[in-house]
Amino acid sequence: MMYGDEMGQIDGALLVGRSNNQDDVIDWANSHGVIVAKSENMVVRNIKFYNFNWNDAAAIGSCSHCFREDATDSGARTAKFEGLFFDSTVDRRIRYQAPRRAIFHDLDGSLTGKGPNSWATAPFAHHDQPECEQDLEVMDGWTCDDTVQIRRVAFHAGKPSAHLRGMGLKVLRYDDDLLAAQEDLDAYIDDVGNYGSIDFKLNKDPSNGWATPFVTGHKYKLHWGQSGVDFEGMTADVS
């Protein structure tokens, strides 16, 4: 019986984005070679990618069938990768699909180039950590080394719910050394560009809540709404 990380897998494939016998229709498409599931426990291994070098075509995408925002999962699901090969004709390795919160765990370094147990995730501002670097052109977000992990945290069951419904979750990097280095702490806190912004998800998993990746080993400041909404209770589920 398949279980755990073996519940869904792609093992052993040659994926060619375009070739000499293709139809011209591909010229306006933004194709993916592999799109991982909108749930946990998928592994992609031993895949070779060639000729993903037009428009926004990419070797790997996230959240299968998440073509419309209302069809997406709450996000921040983890897929694992190993044994990947990217030919020089692959311009972009990753292009995340909505809700653009996926977590990619690179078991051997063949996805990120940062060695075993490295990570990739989407370009939220709160992922700007010392262990991570941003590459929007090839990786469509952040890649982090093995000294940290990237984990899903989901918030839900906020009370009173009427105050929080539809509000965005704002996440700010809040490590002690980072705050001490600020010449104007109030300006840092007030700058909306420093926050990751996570949209509210209705009737998803969790329902009426927010899910986002976090780089582990760091402190964060959270609030809901533009300037903070008072609430009496909140549940946090950690992956």
How would you characterize this protein structure?
- With 239 residues, this protein is mainly beta.
- The chain has two domains: 4-148, no CATH class; 151-238, Immunoglobulin-like (Sandwich), CATH 2.60.40.
- It contains three helices and 16 strands.
- The strands form four sheets. It has a seven-stranded mixed β-sheet, with no helix packed on it. The protein has a three-stranded parallel β-sheet with strand order 2-4-6, with no helix packed on it.
- β9 and β10 form a beta hairpin.
- It is globular.
Strand order of the largest sheet: 1-3-5-7-8-10-9
Radius of gyration: 19 Å
Category from helices, strands and their pairing: mainly beta
- Please indicate the count of domains: 2
Q: Return the string of H and E elements.
A: EEEEEEEEEEEHEHHEEEE
Topology, number of strands: 16
At a glance:
By secondary structure, the protein is mainly beta. 6% of the residues lie in helices and 37% in strands.
Please give the structural blueprint:
Blueprint: E1 8-16, E2 32-35, E3 42-50, E4 58-61, E5 78-86, E6 94-95, E7 103-106, E8 118-121, E9 132-135, E10 141-144, E11 150-159, H1 161-164, E12 169-173, H2 176-180, H3 185-190, E13 195-198, E14 210-215, E15 220-224, E16 233-238
Parallel strand pairs: 1-3, 2-4, 3-5, 4-6, 5-7
Antiparallel strand pairs: 7-8, 8-10, 9-10, 11-14, 11-16, 12-13, 12-15
Label this structure with key terms.
mainly beta, 37% strand, 239 residues, Immunoglobulin-like
